[in-house]
Amino acid sequence: MDKGANKLGEFSLTDKRFSKINVFMANTLFDENYGGKYGNCHIAVGASYSDSYAGDIKDLSKELKKKLGFNDSALHWDLVNTERKRVSAHLVSGETIAIYENGNWGSWEIIEYDPAYQVGELHITADGEELYFHSSRPGSLGANDIWVSRMLDGTWGEPENLTLVNSEEDDSRPFLSEDEQQLWITRTYKGTPAVFVSYKENGVWQEPVLIVSQFAGEPSLDNEGNLYFVHHFFWEGVMLDADIYLAKKK
Question: pTM to 2 decimals?
Answer without folding.
Answer: 0.60
